[in-house]
Write a structure and sequence with these properties.
102 residues; mainly alpha; three-stranded parallel β-sheet; 55% helix
Length: 102
């Protein structure tokens, strides 16, 4: 008897879950980490062009430098900048220094 009364609610919940599962299925954006340690590395502009041609929409930069940031300008790639380890302590204790770094 209780199941019969709640049948419309159960059907609605199942429908909502089915719709939500379809919304999360599909192509997700790809993100790649970009570091500068190594030798014979391609230039930052070559790397950015490779990202764009491969439809990579996000990048994490471990050691932000002006050349890489300039190469990213105008490409619409989402960027996460890591703070280099030697700078962490000074930025953690000084809000003004952190704001300047950003």
């Amino acid at each position: 008897m209780t199941l019969t009364r709640n049948k419309p609610l159960v059907l609605v919940l199942l429908l909502v879950f089915a719709i939500m599962s379809f919304l999360t299925i599909g192509a997700q954006s790809i993100g790649v980490c970009y570091g500068g340690n190594g030798d014979n590395l391609p230039s930052p502009s070559d790397v950015i062009n490779l990202y764009k041609s491969s439809r990579i929409g996000s990048m994490r930069i471990y050691d932000p430098n002006p050349e890489t940031l300039q190469a990213l300008k105008g490409f619409g790639i989402e960027v996460i900048l890591d703070v280099p380890n030697p700078k962490l302590k000074s930025l953690a204790v000084n809000a003004s220094a952190a704001a300047t770094w950003v």
